[in-house]
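Q: What residues go here?
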């Protein structure tokens, strides 16, 4: 099925925001975006409404569309929520996980650990997003899938700056392997312990990033 103009506009603008090509606090120019895409304003407006639902932008009658700042308090809350729901997602998804999928994730992670300089993600092919959304999708809960998508999108914005904390990148790869190994063993307590350890370390990593790039974060 061909991608709709709204979805094309959404993907284009989401990439601009996640990659900070449109920086936090800056206006999003719908007219300019429509011209760049060769679209009318309608699909761009629809895309902007979807971005607003995901809390990536805010729409103001007098100021137009503004890209939401990256808030330290917001990412702390985001991680609190993930600590609550991801163990439950793993509980729900564990019986339906495909071992071949998990092994493929593991091969990818080991390759990244052994060759950290070679790994390169894009917004459209982001390992961390795909990995955590895999468990959400296997849970079969459309509400939790939607919530995780929103949270992981915000996470992508922060991880865009991960180059300022390179040691954290390899640490994260090893933590994903621990989650995968526990899931392959169908050991739920070990999976939950591994995901909690990963999220606790992610919190520390995000804190390092926010202190290194204070120009992009607010309290």
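A:
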């Amino acid at each position: 099925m061909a991608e709709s103009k709204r979805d094309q506009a959404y993907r284009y603008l989401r990439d601009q925001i996640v990659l900070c090509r449109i920086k936090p606090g800056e206006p999003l120019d719908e007219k300019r975006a429509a011209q760049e895409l060769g679209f009318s304003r309608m699909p761009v407006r629809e895309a902007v409404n979807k971005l607003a639902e995901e809390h990536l932008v805010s729409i103001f009658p007098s100021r137009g569309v503004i890209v939401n700042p990256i808030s330290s308090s917001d990412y702390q809350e985001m991680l609190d929520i993930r600590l609550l729901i991801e163990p439950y997602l793993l509980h729900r998804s564990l019986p339906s996980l495909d071992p071949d999928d998990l092994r493929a994730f593991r091969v990818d992670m080991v390759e990244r650990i052994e060759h950290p300089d070679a790994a390169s993600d894009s917004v459209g092919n982001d390992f961390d997003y795909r990995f955590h959304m895999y468990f959400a999708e296997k849970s079969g809960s459309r509400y939790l899938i939607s919530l995780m998508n929103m949270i992981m999108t915000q996470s992508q914005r922060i991880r865009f700056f991960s180059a300022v904390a390179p040691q954290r990148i390899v640490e994260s790869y090893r933590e994903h392997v621990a989650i995968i190994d526990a899931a392959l063993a169908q050991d739920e307590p070990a999976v939950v312990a591994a995901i909690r350890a990963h999220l606790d370390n992610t919190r520390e990593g995000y804190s390092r990033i926010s202190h290194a790039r204070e120009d992009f974060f607010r309290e």
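A: Context that may help when evaluating the design: Residues 188-212 form the longest helix (25 residues). The chain has a mean pLDDT of 88.
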